[in-house]
Specification:
Blueprint (H helix, E strand, L loop, with lengths): L4 H20 L5 H15 L12 H20 L2 H11 L15 H18 L1
Helix pairs in contact: 1-2, 1-3, 1-4, 2-3
């Protein structure tokens, strides 16, 4: 049975709230929680690691990095726990994902460190 790319993308989008719930669940293994935290912060951040205005690369992170993070995180969550979280997450973000400015802090910090490093290299 072949899964078409659009269906896979829709499923991954639906899995972000489930990963969010798994992050907060006490029965989720620590490694899965770490990856779930990274995935949720990246998915909900209004700022991308590579900004969308950067030609080609700006969209590649959305097309490759986020699905990769979601897929990896899902594999780390026990199947029964993931299924429970998927059921609880149905329709959770029906109005769209929450937009929180503080999810951007890690990405802004990374860019600031890069800029500081480049400035130090030039001096």
């Amino acid at each position: 049975m072949k899964v078409n790319l659009r269906q896979r993308a829709e499923q991954l989008k639906k899995d972000v709230p489930a990963v969010f719930l798994a992050l907060k669940d006490k029965d989720t293994p620590l490694v899965a929680k770490i990856f779930a935290g990274i995935t949720v912060v990246y998915a909900l951040s209004p700022v991308d690691l590579i900004p969308d205005f950067v030609p080609v690369l700006g969209y590649l992170d959305d097309v490759i990095l986020l699905p990769l993070l979601i897929t990896l995180t899902i594999r780390l969550i026990p199947a029964d726990k993931l299924e429970e979280c998927r059921l609880r997450a149905e329709g959770m973000w029906g109005d769209g994902k929450p937009k929180k400015w503080y999810y951007a802090i890690p990405f802004v910090a990374i860019w600031l460190l890069i800029v500081l490093f480049l400035v130090k290299m030039m001096l």
